[in-house]
Amino acid sequence: MKGFSGNKKKLLVADDKWENRSVFVQLLAPLGFEIIEAADGQECVAKAKEFKPDCILMDLVMPVMDGFEAVRQIRKLPELQNVVAIGTSASILENQKQVSLTVGCNAFLTKPIRAEELFDCLQIHLGLEWICEELQEENAELEISGMSIFSSPPAIDRQETIAPPP
């Protein structure tokens, strides 16, 4: 996968574990995303106000302020009410998923997060069209006529796990 079509997107990654933030950055920055990081919910709310991201990848269990409360506060801000919020957690409890959606998350991903699930979620909620490397040359030829080819990333490239198990 080479990237996505359209304008650059800003992602705010909130997780108290730098290793998890680093994995998101290493996976998504090369695809053209601008990544901002936060180590807890309070920092996430402050950075969301300042940077106005297109999407927030929010760990739900963090110190200082958890992800549930951070999403609640973000949803109260008029300028951020429509930001995409994706909750993440190592917990597989259905209750945690339901609570995350109730407080305002658009989606929930269980850790360890699989790249395929993350890409699909970003594609759905940000309306992305992925640009695949194998289509790059063919697409360059078709752009002359005003046409282009975009598709989802190949499944074989998206099966890797991007966060270690808890």
Question: Which features does this protein show?
Answer:
single chain, 166 residues, Rossmann fold, 5-stranded parallel beta sheet, alpha/beta, 7 strands
How does this model look, in words?
The protein is α/β, with parallel strands linked by helices and 166 residues long. It has helices at 18-28, 41-51, 67-75, 94-103, 115-126, 133-143; strands at residues 3-4, 10-14, 34-38, 55-59, 84-89, 107-110, 130-131. It has a 5-stranded parallel sheet with strand order 3-2-4-5-6, sandwiched between helices. β2 (10-14), α1 (18-28) and β3 form a beta-alpha-beta unit. Mean pLDDT is 81; it is low at 147-161.
Produce a short descriptive summary.
With 166 residues, the chain is an alpha/beta fold. 39% of the residues lie in helices and 17% in strands. The chain has helices spanning 18-28, 41-51, 67-75, 94-103, 115-126, 133-143, and strands spanning 3-4, 10-14, 34-38, 55-59, 84-89, 107-110, 130-131.
Euclidean distance between termini CA atoms: 28 Å
H/E element order: EEHEHEHEHEHEH
- If helices are DSSP runs of H or I spanning 4 or more residues, what is the number of helices? 6
Report the C-alpha radius of gyration, rounded. 16 Å
Largest sheet: 5 strands, parallel
- The CATH homologous superfamily name equals Response regulator
* CATH class descriptor name: Alpha Beta
Helix and strand composition category:
alpha/beta
**Average predicted confidence as pLDDT:** 81
Q: What does the overall shape look like?
A: globular
Number of E-type strands: 7
CATH topology category name:
Rossmann fold
Strand order of the largest sheet: 3-2-4-5-6
Which CATH architecture would you pick?
3-Layer(aba) Sandwich
